[in-house]
Amino acid sequence: MTRAQVETVAARALGVFGLVFSAQTVPSALAQAGALVDGAGIALMAVLYGIAVVVALATFTRVGVRTAATSYAFAYALALAAWPALVEDPALLEGRAPWLYYLCTIATTAAVVAFPVGGAVGYTVAVPMLYGLVRLSPAGGGVGPALAGLDAVYALILGIVVLVIITMLRQAAEAVDQAQDAALQRYDVAARQHATEIERVKIDALVHDSVLTTLLSAAAATTPDEQALAARMARDAVKRLDEAGATGPRSLERVALTVLVRRLRAAMTTFTTPFTVRVVNAGGVELPVEAVDALYTAAVQAMVNSAQHADEPGRTTRRELRVRGVRAGGCVIEVSDNGAGFDPAAVPQERLGLRVSIEERMANAGGRSRLDARPGHGTTVVLAWPAEAMGDAS
């Protein structure tokens, strides 16, 4: 299981159970609404239930998951802190626990999904403690320290269990991802060496069968017919050599597009400038090893160019990396920013970043690249493999 799959499973579990637990609290929330100031009960339900629906939609569409989970975690903490001030008649609660208690585990799970480990730990500890304090107050039922502490510890234990499980799964998945990336790199080298050896054998056979035969025929040609035959053989040998050089060694092995995405994310950690990453339709897409290498190198070069040249004084530059699978065997990558931009025609010929590292590398691998740039309007580099996939680029 990869890190991306762990995040997906955890987020979708949050979305599903968030809706289930919210539905279970509706009777209690309606029953306790009369004890709150006018409109407060309905407002709390609208906010928390509404965000729970947003979280569920985000987890299944994979759009804005962290933002939605962060919103739920903060909204719940604010609602819990405001509960004593919102209760107008504590007697109507009859000592019962606030209905917010039953959503505590959902809130701590949202924090685990949205926050780094340190923030998730702090939230998981702080929110149950806050609930214990609310439970001691008249608005929370006015129970004794023992019962309030028991409720807080129970919520704390549930939160810690979720935190530990998700954190352990993340760490295990990261180890798997790193091992797979290392294995892929070793395999990439081995596959290239194997393809190069096959190509060497093919060239050796071509030289022996065509070039040497042509040279021997030319040396032995004495009549016009023999000389014409030798000339035809020479033209055929040159053509076959040109075709062999243009084709080059190729590996037929394929790897998943998700591996390329992970390599690009790892490369981004070396940049001081952040990139927003959007991945669409990556599941089930497989690319040849050479295509993955060309796309990776060209995309990293485009990101380096953006980091070095796009910034303008006094203006924040937004950078984005978009990766989209095209059917089962194609890919389109877009590296864009809204920075300074430039005139491609004004780039000196000796500058190799665009011409060699991007354009020629993609062309040699059977893909295409496109540059959209204007001074003052940002830059977008589009990479497509195979070349026909450029028609699917936005």
How would you describe what is shown here?
Strands 2-4-5-7-6 form a five-stranded mixed β-sheet. A two-stranded antiparallel ribbon has the order 1-3. The mean pLDDT is 83. The longest helix is centred in the middle third of the chain and has 76 residues, at 145-220. It is of the alpha+beta class and 394 residues long. It is built from ten helices and seven strands. It folds into three domains: 3-176; 181-247; 254-392, Histidine kinase-like ATPase, C-terminal domain (Heat Shock Protein 90). The protein starts with a helix and ends in a 9-residue tail after the last strand. Strand 6 and strand 7 form a beta hairpin. It has helices spanning 3-32, 40-61, 65-86, 104-114, 117-136, 145-220, 224-247, 257-268, 289-309, 352-364; strands spanning 254-256, 276-280, 286-288, 319-326, 330-337, 368-373, 379-385.
Sketch the major β-sheet. 5 strands, mixed
Q: How many domains would you count in the coordinates? A: 3
Number of separate strands: 7
Number of helices: 10
Q: Helices and strands, in N-to-C order?
A: HHHHHHHEHEEHEEHEE
Assign the structural class, choosing from mainly alpha, mainly beta, alpha/beta, alpha+beta, or little secondary structure: alpha+beta
SS strand fraction: 5-15%
Distance linking N and C termini: 32 Å
Mean pLDDT: 83
How many whole angstroms does the radius of gyration measure?
31 Å
Organism: Agromyces sp. G08B096
Transmembrane segments: 41-60, 67-87, 99-126, 147-169
Keywords: ATP-binding, Membrane, Nucleotide-binding, Transmembrane, Transmembrane helix
GO molecular function: ATP binding
